[in-house]
Amino acid sequence: MVVGDFVILPDQGSSKFLLGFILSDAFDGEINHVSQETVFDEMSDPGYTISNFQKKRRVFWIKEFMQKDLPDKLS
After folding, report:
1. What SS3 class is residue 28?
2. Which site from 1, 3, 13, 24 is most exposed, i.e. has the minimal number of CB atoms within 10 Å?
C-alpha cells in the first residue's frame, strides 16, 4: 500500500464496508483518537473500535456502505 491508494475495509460481519484512501506511510507512534462526539461530550467513546496493532496508517474515510451496494464483480 502507498499514500493515495484506495482501501475498502469490511466490518466484523462483512455486511458493511468503509471506503477511504491512505494519507500516510506506516508508523508506530500513538494516535490521538478524536471524533465529532468527543468535541461535544468528553465522556463519549470515539464511535469505533480502537485497534491495538503496532503499525498504523492514517486513512481519510469517505463513505460507509452496505455489501448489497457493491457491484457484483467487486463483491
Report:
1. coil
2. 13
CA distance 7 to 67: 15
Show the cell assigned to 25. 506511510
Contact (Cβ atoms closer than 8 angstroms) between residue 60 and residue 20: yes
Cell of 35: 471524533
In this structure, what are the phi and psi dihedrals at residue 36, rounded to the nearest 5 degrees? Answer: -60, -40
This prediction's pTM: 0.65
At 14-60, the pLDDT tens digits run 788 889 999 999 998 877 766 555 445 555 554 566 677 888 888 88
